[in-house]
Amino acid sequence: MPNMSILTTLKYLTNHPLCTDHKLRTLLRFIGWQITTRIMPYPVIYQFTAKSKLIVQKGMYGATGNLYCGLHEFHDMGFLLHLLRAGDLFVDAGANIGGYTILASADKEANTIAIEPGSSAYTNLMTNVRINDIGSRVHALNIALGATTGVVDFTISLDTTNHVVVENEATDTVKVNMDTLDNILEKQSPILLKIDVEGFETEVLKGAKKTLQNQNLKAIIIELNGLSERYGIENRKNHDALLEYGFMPYSYNPLNKELIKCEALGRSNTIYIRDVDFVKERLNTADKVHLRNQVI
After folding, report:
1. From start to end of the chain, where are the E strands?
2. Exposure of 225 in the CB half-sphere (CA atoms within 13 A)
3. Which of 38, 123, 180, 234 counts the most CB atoms within 10 A of its CB?
4. Do strands 192-195 and 248-253 pair parallel, antiparallel, or not at all (unpaired)?
5. Is residue 114, in this structure, part of any structural domain at all?
């Protein structure tokens, strides 16, 4: 939850679907964490789901969102937990410290290819992989994804919003190797792809043509919040590209396993589905997932 004011953060927490019946408990957890990190600013190992753990440290905005609420990105994380099965292949493009990777490979026992260009985030990702003992199911790469192979400048001081540098952008950067998703996957076929690359989605999609054409890919969770405009790309271009591959946009409510087709392009994370009958069958027959406050 970067750049949120205290009031905005509290509004987010109390309106979160997993917190509406536990508002006081959530607020106390938030206050407790704020006090604790000032007294003892060390990483803590947090019980993520009944089958997984996550390291949380001051300044890790997504990770602290999980600590406060149970699942920071509730709808998308819930979709992943209900869709995946043991042995499936999940690709986490823009893995950050590994929230989605841990849910996929520790809780659901799926295989994950986790791609994270930021050196600090990648270090934390690997630590989370180790504490969950899932190294055999996670193949992690400290690179960027794009339309071609090469080297790009990448920001290093913006936490969850680190990104491929725009020309003449004044910020601390580091050189990072870049490859295409098609090159990385070769003959592997993921069932679910998550793309969270802070506006660089168009380039990632350009380098994933074979992957997107593969009918084994059933769903994509992608961030479409307008950040692509920093690279001169309209938000709708990525939406239109996915439509051409046969994907349609949906939202998902994990509490009742309801999948709802979106009638308009939003400006947030969106789930795109190609084989909706297959996906619905997976969602409806998914095992219950035990979180801290409840079961979904």
Report:
1. 44-49, 52-56, 89-93, 111-115, 138-141, 144-145, 150-155, 173-179, 192-195, 219-223, 248-253, 258-261, 269-273
2. 11
3. 180
4. unpaired
5. yes
Evaluated on CA atoms 98, 100, 103, 106, the torsion sign reads: negative
- Going by C-beta distance under 8 Å and a sequence separation of 6 or more, which residues neighbour residue 256? none
Two structure tokens written together for 253: 């409510």
Range of the domain at 187: 74-284
In-domain check, residue 125: yes
Largest CA distance in the chain: 53
Collapsing DSSP states into helix, strand and coil, what is residue 115?
strand
47 SS3 class: strand
What does the alpha-carbon distance between residue 253 and residue 27 come to, in Å, rounded to a whole number?
23
Has residue 81 been placed in a domain? yes
Show the tokens assigned to 244: 């051409």
46 domain residue, yes or no: no
Mean pLDDT per block of 10 residues along the chain (296 residues) reads: 66 85 85 88 91 90 86 96 98 97 98 95 96 98 96 79 76 88 96 93 96 98 83 84 96 96 82 97 96 84
CATH assignment at residue 248: 3.40.50.150
Q: What is the DSSP string of 232-273?
A: T--HHHHHHHHHHTT-EEEEEETTTTEEEE-SS--SSEEEEE
Cβ 118 vs Cβ 260: under 8 Å: no
Residue 251 tokens read as 């939202």
Domains: count for the chain: 1
* Nearest residue to 231 (alpha-carbon basis) of 272, 267, 274, 200: 200
Contact 162, 118 (CB under 8 A): yes
Ramachandran region, residue 128 (left: φ > 0; alpha: ψ -120 to 50; beta: rest):
alpha
